[in-house]
Structure formats: structure tokens, C-alpha cells
Backbone:
């Protein structure tokens, strides 16, 4: 149903430098669900996420069904201030109300970060940094979540927690994921296969 469409692009051409990744491509994204973007290295997966984040609100190629929605983006760089504590990062990005919410407390315990919340992010392991960045995204009030390799650095337990959170959130939000491989238990609404480019 067209009423279920949230965002779409018609005749999208995407280039990085001299390399053309997508040519006259069409995309339709619905109101909710986990959508996995697949393709070989260099096919434009990460570039498509960046395109949506930076240009979907101002490019004529992109069309919103209704009012343009807020987007939250997790890239490989994670987007955290490493000199600040996890608490300070959450408060800065999300505000005190969300940082102190029951959901925030729940995720801290699930990810086993509650005892390190006041330590600078620079002292965290790679996995802890990933979980901290995921908290910033998962707690966001954004309507669309863009996640580039969100399982990087996570152990089995943390991966299962993330999968459960994505399945829960995707019932109300659109989540676009670039994944390195298959994820057990992830409920997927759609897959987008990008060519070599």
C-alpha cells in the first residue's frame, strides 16, 4: 500500500569520486521493518546510507510521504566524544530525559556498561565503544535508523541483545542495516541487493 511508504527515491545516481556506484536506481522504503542492504565491497552500501542521511531532506530525487522524518546514523566512526564519559555522551546527544530513562538503564544493564558509565569512552574496549554507540542510536527518537555494520566488535551475548532490540524497534521504525553476514534471529522485512558498481 502506498500509505505505508515512508521514503522513496526515483532515478538515483550515486557517484564517489570518479566511480559511479548507482545509476538511475529506484528505492522504496516503508514505515517500519528491518531492511538489509547487501552487496560486494565497493557496491555502494555505506554510500547509500550516507546519501539518505545527508541528502534525503534536501534532494529532489528523494520523496517523503508526508513530513520529512528525523534520521539517526551509526557509521564506522561511531560518532562518540572519546574524552567524555558514556553518560555525558548520552546526555549530549539525546538529552537528560532520555539519558536517565528506564530504557537507558535497561540497556546499560543488558550491555553491562552500568559500572563504567562515568569513565571516558577512550578507556573502553572496541566492543564497549560499539555498545555505547548503539545505545545512542537505539535510544534515539529518530524515525529512521541507519546502521553500518552494527554488530562489529560485539560478542555473542551482546549480538543477541542487539538483534532483540532491532526486532522490537523495527515494529515502529524503519531500520536500514549494512551487514557483514547473516544474523540469526533478525526479522527482516526486505533485502536490497546492490551490484558491483
Residues:
Amino acid at each position: 500500500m502506498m500509505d505505508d511508504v515512508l521514503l522513496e527515491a526515483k532515478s538515483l545516481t550515486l557517484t564517489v569520486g570518479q566511480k559511479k556506484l548507482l545509476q538511475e536506481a529506484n528505492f522504496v522504503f516503508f514505515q517500519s521493518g528491518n531492511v538489509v542492504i547487501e552487496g560486494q565491497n565497493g557496491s555502494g552500501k555505506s554510500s547509500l546510507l550516507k546519501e539518505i542521511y545527508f541528502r534525503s531532506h534536501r534532494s529532489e530525487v528523494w520523496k517523503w510521504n508526508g513530513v520529512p522524518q528525523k534520521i539517526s546514523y551509526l557509521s564506522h566512526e561511531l560518532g562518540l566524544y572519546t574524552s567524555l564519559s558514556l553518560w555525558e555522551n548520552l546526555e549530549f546527544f539525546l538529552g537528560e530525559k532520555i539519558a536517565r530513562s528506564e530504557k537507558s538503564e535497561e540497556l546499560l544493564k543488558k550491555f553491562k556498561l552500568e559500572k563504567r558509565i562515568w569513565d571516558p569512552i577512550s578507556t573502553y574496549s572496541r566492543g564497549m565503544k560499539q555498545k555505547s554507540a548503539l545505545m545512542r542510536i537505539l535510544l534515539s527518537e529518530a524515525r529512521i535508523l541507519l546502521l553500518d555494520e552494527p554488530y562489529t566488535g560485539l560478542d555473542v551475548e551482546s549480538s543477541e541483545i542487539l538483534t532483540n532490540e532491532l526486532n522490537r524497534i523495527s515494529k515502529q521504525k524503519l531500520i536500514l542495516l549494512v551487514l557483514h553476514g547473516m544474523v540469526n534471529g533478525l526479522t527482516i522485512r526486505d533485502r536490497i541487493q546492490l551490484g558491483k558498481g
Q: What stands out?
A: The two ends are 31 Å apart (CA to CA). The mean pLDDT is 92.
